[in-house]
Amino acid sequence: MTTGTRRPVAVRWHRALAGTDEARVAAAPVLAAAPTVHRKPVDAAAAALGAAFDALPGELRATAPLYVLCRDYGSWAARRFVARCHDPARRLRPSDSVGLETSELVRPYLTASEHRGDCYLLAQLPAAEAEFVPPVTAARPAAVVLDLIVFPGEDPRDADLLALATTWKASGL
How far is residue 99 CA from its own chain's centroid? Predict the structure, then answer.
C-alpha cells in the first residue's frame, strides 16, 4: 500500500423511508427524514428513491448505481400471482405477469428521473442477517440501496410495503 493514498470508505449518508401503511411507517425502527405514506407500492418505492437520490451531489445523481434488495417482494409477488391464477372469479391480464417483476417498482422512478446508472436486482443476500454494503470506491463514489420489506396480509393478494432507500457515498464527498 502506498503511503498518502487513502481508499474511500463507504459511510451511510442518508436514509429515506416510504410505505403503504401509515402505522407501519410510524412504527418502523429506522432513522429516516420525513417518512411518507402512499397508496401504491410503486409510489412508495419512487418516493424513497427520489429522496435518496436527491441527497447525492448533482454530478453523481444520474449515474450512481442502484441496488434493489427484492427477495421479500419477489416472494410475495409470486404468491399473489399464484392466487390470481387459481381465482375462478378473476381473469388474468398481461399486467398480472408483469407485476411479478420487481423492476416494475423502480422503473417508473428511473425513467422519470432519466437515471443512467446501473440497476441491480438482488434476490437474496449471502447470509440471512447480513447487511448489504454496496461497493463504493473512488471509481464509483456513490450508490443507493433500496430495501423492499413486505408485510403480507391475510389475503395473499394484499400486502403492506416499506421501501427503505439508503444513500451511500465515499467519505470526503
Answer: 16
Query: Comparing C-alpha atoms, which of 76, 71, 67 is closest to residue 129?
Result: 71
Q: Are 58 and 41 in contact (CB under 8 A)?
A: no
Distance CA(97)–CA(91), nearest Å, equals 12
Contact 22, 37 (CB under 8 A): yes
Instruction: State pLDDT tens for residues 118-133.
Output: 999 998 766 666 778 8
Query: Using CA atoms, how far apart are residues 69 and 125, in angstroms rounded to an integer?
Result: 8
How does pLDDT run across 89-108, given as a tens digit for each residue? 877 776 666 666 888 889 99
Q: Could you give the CA distance from residue 7 to residue 11 in angstroms, rounded to a whole number?
A: 13
R_g over Cα of the chain? 17
Grid coordinates representing 132 are: 448489504
DSSP per residue, 69-124: E-HHHHHHHHHHHHHHHT-TT----HHHHHTT-THHHHHHHHHHTT--S-EEEE--
Residue from 145, 120, 135, 131 nearest 56 by CA = 145
